[in-house]
Amino acid sequence: MNKLKNLAINLGLTVSALIFSITLGEIGLRIAGIEHPPPPRPDQESESKSLYTTKDPNRGWAGNPNSKSFWTGEGIPSEIKMNSGGFRDYERSKNKPENGLRIALLGDSFTEAIHVKLEDTHGAIIEKNLQQCPVLKDRKVEVMNFGVQGYGTAQQLMTLRHHVWDYSPDLVILIFFAPNDLRNNYRALENDHLRPYFIYQDGQLVADMSFRNLKFWQRYRYGFSLIDSLPFWLVKNSRILQLIRKVDRNEKRRQSRKYYSEINLAFKEPKPNSDWSEAWKVTEGLIKLMRDEVYKKGADFMVVTASDSHQVLPDIQRRDGFRKSLNVPNLFYTDIRLKNFGKEENIPVYTLAGPIWDEAKRTGKCLHGFDNAIPCGGHWNIAGHKFVGEIMANYLCEKYTTRN
Fold it and tell me: Angle formed by the axes of helices 122-130 and 382-403, to 10°?
């Protein structure tokens, strides 16, 4: 009995000391004016007003139909609008025009291209220029943009399955950006888990849709703190929890910077059975799945490999320095691999990095980058989109001319 009494007394003293310490800490932080209030947590009302929703059951996040927002980030400040399908594109009817030619673009931020005005995107330029192709002059050409920033090949496959076929495309083009897409397709390399993954089971790729059960604070490996799992009112009113959250978030930001500094490993031939090797295996499997589904629908399919800014720097010395830092013979491993993969799997593959680099060397101008972001880095600028749109339209015109 005495043991239980002593245990109760000791426990009470410990709890009292803990409460006293917390209270003292809270008072001290308030006197010092130290406060780090957490941002509002997402709710249904705020999501309904946002450009994107995180409630898409097949893809994780997606554009909110008919939403709009003013973009002030990397690129040209402008109003971004989603069409009724939830894509950054002109309004499109699901009824295909008689004798129309419809091309569907699948991709990520390079395709969605919120960094430039809609009329300056490569998709809009392909549409405009391809309409002038002599063999297509009597057809209504539509190049539909189904790109969504941050998407990997799995989400693009889900977009194809659940959205693209509603518009009856004649040609589906997957615009593949290796440094991001490979990582996006493999859980061990990705830190944003609000997305479907595909995994091999008995030699077959099957969808892992476990993201549907994610709590908001479980989404980013480096984007949230464990403190975010606590009730919002508690964190909002506790300076100690706010401080712990800030310290934790700062450390995760440091880890994130280190993590992103390693994504250029996509330029290297992966070691067997490494995460990058497995990511390639899944990615190539996803592209074959996409090919099979497109061909089954009677449409054409092709892959376009987007350029990375490092590949196409007009400053050859700077570009070569980057190559040497990776200890690789060239910066075209991913493009060459996908080109060879396409030959083996009956998939046309068009590589953009070579033509873009030739143009950059010829003009001395960067086709990536904006004044308000990384010079010559990041996404295609207006000149980049214009060049890509023009050469893609020429390529497609030649293909349709040869076919006829």
Answer: 40
Q: Which of 393, 326, 323, 380 is nearest to 353 (CA)?
A: 380
C-alpha separations of 307 from 47, 147, 196, 255, 324 in Å? 33, 16, 25, 26, 19
Q: How far apart are CA 336 and CA 304, in angstroms?
A: 12
Determine the Cα–Cα distance for residues 155 and 185; give it in Å rounded to an integer: 9
Q: Tell me the pLDDT tens digit for each residue of 44-89.
A: 556 667 899 999 999 999 999 999 999 999 999 999 999 999 999 9
CB 222 within 8 A of CB 253: yes
H or E element: which one contains 53? strand 52-56
For residue 296, the tally of other CB atoms under 10 A from its CB is 8
Percent of the chain with pLDDT over 70: 92
* CA distance linking residue 8 with residue 229, whole number of Å: 31
Show the tokens assigned to 234. Answer: 């508690």
Amino acid residing at 266: A
- Which pairing describes strands 349-351 and 300-305: parallel, antiparallel, or unpaired? parallel
Name the pTM for this structure: 0.89
Contact 89, 66 (CB under 8 A): no
User: Which residue bears the tokens 């076929």?
Assistant: 165
173/404: higher pLDDT:
173
Pick the CATH number of 44-221+256-403 from 3.40.50.700, 1.10.10.10, 1.20.1250.20, 3.40.50.1110: 3.40.50.1110
CB burial of residue 134 (10 Å; 0-12, 13-18, 19+): exposed
Q: What is the pLDDT of residues 194-203, one digit of tens each?
A: 999 999 999 8
Of 327, 331, 304, 326, nearest in space to 316 by CA? 331
- Residues comprising the chain, all counted: 404
Ranges of H-type helices in 114-221: 122-130, 153-162, 178-184
What is the greatest pairwise CA distance in the chain? 99
Per DSSP bridges, beta strands 349-351 and 52-56 are: unpaired
Phi, psi angle pair for 48, to nearest 5°: -70, -20
